[in-house]
## 1
Amino acid sequence: MSEPTLPRRQTLKQLAGLTALGLIGYLRAPRAAAANPATPVAAIPGVGGKIVRRGEKGYEIWRQSMVWHLSKPKRYPDVIVQARSTEDVIHAVQYAAANGLKVAVRSGGHNSNGPSLRDGGLLIDLSALEEIRIDSDQRIASIQPGVRSLGLVQAARDKGLTFPVPHCASVGLGGFTLGGGIGWNYPARGGVSTHSIIGAEIVMADGRLLRATAKENPDLYWAVRGVGPGFFGVVTRLDLKLYTAPKVILASTYILPLAEVKTATAALEKIRQAGKLGHTEPLLVFTHHPEAPDNAPPEQAKICFVTIFAFDESEEKARAALQPYAESALAGSKALFKAEFQPFDFEGLYDRYFSLNDPAGRCARYAVDNVLTNRGAETLHALADHYSKAPTRWCHVLAAFNMGTRVLPDSCFSWVADTFVGCYAIWDEEKDDAANFAWLGDNLPLMDPFADGHYVNEIEARGHPERYPACFSKANWNRLQALRRQYDPQGVFHSYLGHS
Ligand SMILES: Cc1cc2nc3c(=O)[nH]c(=O)nc-3n(C[C@H](O)[C@H](O)[C@H](O)COP(=O)(O)OP(=O)(O)OC[C@H]3O[C@@H](n4cnc5c(N)ncnc54)[C@H](O)[C@@H]3O)c2cc1C
């Protein structure tokens, strides 16, 4: 193939936003709410941050801003507290416990189920807790839970360090790390980011502030490393292990027709079998061709968009890491487009591949479900035909290969898997909810037969609360429930959505 058949910059830019189309809703609502507090309300002793109660002016905009996307849950907490300090969190929890208010927690607000919004009770919004301290000698970042992906990557990079942060700049580190976390350059970082938590500070149901490390409160340390959106405490600080920052980031992108999915997966499998995946991060996305009209026939519009990222200490090494892909069938006669060995910095990666900037300026409704599997290719083959019937052009299926997740004795993350496959429904209007949830739901029986497990941060729990136990081994789920009873006997904290 000589020349790309599509203008490269335009193609990549248009494909940006595949997993994230709600910037406007996200950016406007939370920040406006924080800057324009509601009318003064009854104080909570010891809490300095803003408080708004149901029925008061400003409540609804603040409530809605707790969830990034536009499928705002119709669930209404009694009180929302924006914490300005750990002390605020302690006092808010004590107040809730004393007044019979169940506590929910929000960090970055990106979870698709909006689990921070519950009916009744008190919601603690941690998004204003954004401190980052870097200890270069120890290679540790000590962060508050409101820190976002871009903030940590930039602060660490200034010291020559990095962390496997979320692929979108604004995703919160709080929920991301607690749930597992598939971060940039995961293959070189031990699979999931939660395993890079080396310490946590936790406000417990009785208001005590406990520290959890491998040595202090090891059962809490085990739980915090993978528990996801159902923890029985508020994490107010995380100590994260940092890694040497890459000096060079290169990406190669290949587009094939959807009908060539087996060509794409076979190419990736061949590279894997040859032991040449190295630390590259290969993503394969089923999506709608950016230049095709909405109503174009699937056989023309639906594509496999494959990108492989190499993070390395030199250009020579990064090019060598991507070379097996350039020599594979991905780059062969079936390719509609290729752009190889493209240099990026992290800002460029967010912008080109996972930007929240939807080119059309749309907001989005959003739902996702997934499998973690060791049969990624088969999973994709099983999903391809159903994907081509997706109700909107923005719906997509994303597979992250070379995951290398591990099961560790000091983490409740439960699965050994080499591939994550997520199905994402993205649409505009409430009237289309049923069609999109139906499309997403119909993916489950297609992909679940290949599941070794599920990733707790990206399941569709609104219709399927039974997915939460399925995100853990039976033993780990039972141990989490036992720890909940031990540490939160009065049920001060909400459990997983749909569970008590
Ligand atoms: C655009 C977009 C991009 C994404 N990219 C990635 C990605 O690259 N990799 C990946 O793995 N995932 C990704 N995700 C999924 C993401 O990891 C989850 O949505 C995660 O739950 C978001 O965390 P949050 O703090 O923003 O969410 P929130 O909605 O604020 O939190 C979700 C829940 O987690 C719990 N929680 C959060 N913080 C705390 C705390 N401090 N203490 C106790 N419990 C807490 C609470 O139960 C809370 O309700 C993405 C999601 C979106 C929408």
## 2
Amino acid sequence: MTGIVLKSTGSWYRIRLENGEEVEARVRGKLRTSGSRNTNPVTVGDYVDMDLTGEDYAITKVHERKNYIIRKSTKLSKETHIIAANLDLAVMVTTLKSPKIKFGFIDRFLVTAEAYNVPAVIVFNKCDLLNDEELEYLLTLQGAYRDIGYDSALISVHAQTGLEDIRTLLEGKIALFSGHSGVGKSSLLNALNPAIDARVTDVSDFNEKGQHTTTFAEMHPLDGNSYVIDTPGLRSFGLIDMEPEELKDFFPEMVRLSEGCKFHNCLHLNEPGCAVKPAYEEGELPWFRYENYCYFLDELKDMKQ
Ligand SMILES: Nc1nc2c(ncn2[C@@H]2O[C@H](COP(=O)(O)OP(=O)(O)OP(=O)(O)O)[C@@H](O)[C@H]2O)c(=O)[nH]1
Ligand SMILES: [Mg+2]
Ligand SMILES: [Zn+2]
């Protein structure tokens, strides 16, 4: 019997069977110890095989993952925790105001999604709080990201605007909602499907670090063929472990231009014959992407020291 993991608490899992029925299952001890350095052998989004003994479902096998995203375990830094697997889409939910999100966060997220090979989109929520000038700014930003190849949507859960765009983006997919605490991930889920009834915390109760109302990654069926995984708000989004030389590969607009660089391993800093840096200098590509690239690159180099 096969199903998809909707929720994991560490000791049991909620599984949706192919017929739509939901059951609880445990893991056989054998599976738990199978070699990897991940703290969790089964994760949300996994397809699993199960045995049924009496009324007890036991997970016997995890199918190979198409992709997965990980986070370093908080306590054991060498170990990693898989947040979710088999994603079709990573959705960055962010806001310009309330909370104000550091701008570089979007690109950090996009780099990570590229590294995991998961298509990413950006959702700007709480547009009801913005004045014309701020909306204009977001439209410019949206255009810049569209040119690179990232879809985005300007929405307001409270004003119920832009929600149809989100439905279109999510249609037929398993999508991960990510973003800071308080940006409205759970609110958006509830707006898309009130039956989900995810817990929402009033933003006025948020402290600086955020409330973290959602504490477990959990997958919610939106309709027959779309799923959304709600995750706890991320306080920061560390770049995943990669070699500094790899970073450039996760900026699609740089990859396209780098065909014109003299050296195939050009880092687009000050190498002779670089085709990327001049393009930024001449304003042919968004400056903030290049600056974030340089900033992230320094960060990765520091990490390696
Ligand atoms: N003004 C405004 N407030 C919103 C909007 N969407 C959500 N909120 C409010 O933002 C606050 C936080 O919403 P949540 O849905 O709990 O945020 P979250 O991203 O799930 O937060 P965590 O679970 O902590 O990661 C609540 O007070 C919501 O009512 C919106 O479109 N406009
Ligand atoms: Mg939430
Ligand atoms: Zn170059």
## 3
Amino acid sequence: MSGMLNGQRIFVTGAAGGIGREVVNGLAAEGAEVIATDVRLAEGTNASLSLICDVTDQASVNAAVAEANAKLGPLTGLAYVTGFNHEATPIAEFAMEMWDKVFDINVKGVVRCANAIVPQLRANGGGSIVTTTSWWSYSGKAYFSAYCASKAALKSLTQSMADELAPNGIRVNNVAPGNMNTSMHTDALESEASKRGITFEEMREIEWAKVPLGIAGPPSAIADCMAFLFSDKASYITGGTFDVNGGVLLRSA
Ligand SMILES: NC(=O)c1ccc[n+]([C@@H]2O[C@H](COP(=O)([O-])OP(=O)(O)OC[C@H]3O[C@@H](n4cnc5c(N)ncnc54)[C@H](O)[C@@H]3O)[C@@H](O)[C@H]2O)c1
């Protein structure tokens, strides 16, 4: 533990997920007080506080932020790790309800969190926000239209926030994971394998062969990148996209 995040109070969404849990523990290990939030309680982490928070519901977000503020003091940061992927779906069969759900969780939730948290950061004289996009934000993929479009939209939203909030001393960046070894990745492999009529193992071999470093990454790699972005070492960095992907973009052009 370096203590590089000492004195920070960081609100993490999606904290019960494969990457979110590692982000909670990684930021706490560097000295931050972490508020772990999710639609289900994130148990067994090193969070200072664990709260239920549904990012599709402004009242739920406001309540969690208010409780964090009352118990620990004003927030200094937001790590938006929440994300939702849909099953592989042909565009001509895409239900609008599913399209809306993907955008509600992956994009609009960030705006709800900004509504609740940015005023606190402004009042503190600054802070840092990190969102979680994807290597699939760079180009669309067959059957994953809504997810890819939502992550491209999130990247643009993150850049707009960076530009707008810079005068308030608030830095805003996004981390773009490649294939990380979590259930979101294995579920996507299973879904794609069944569309193609091949086994899970065959699908995994196809996907991992695209990664120069040869494997789906450890979720802790995302936490390490976020810890850096929340620290003073990143004080001149805003509006950036940070690829944590084992080099996968080099083989997917
Ligand atoms: N795992 C990967 O390979 C990978 C690759 C690229 C990008 N990502 C992105 O990384 C982030 C984390 O992915 P993960 O693998 O940990 O996924 P995950 O499915 O394990 O975790 C996502 C979490 O978000 C929570 N969540 C869903 N809806 C919510 C809501 N309405 N309100 C609050 N929380 C809600 C879920 O309960 C879950 O705990 C996501 O944004 C994802 O899109 C993951």
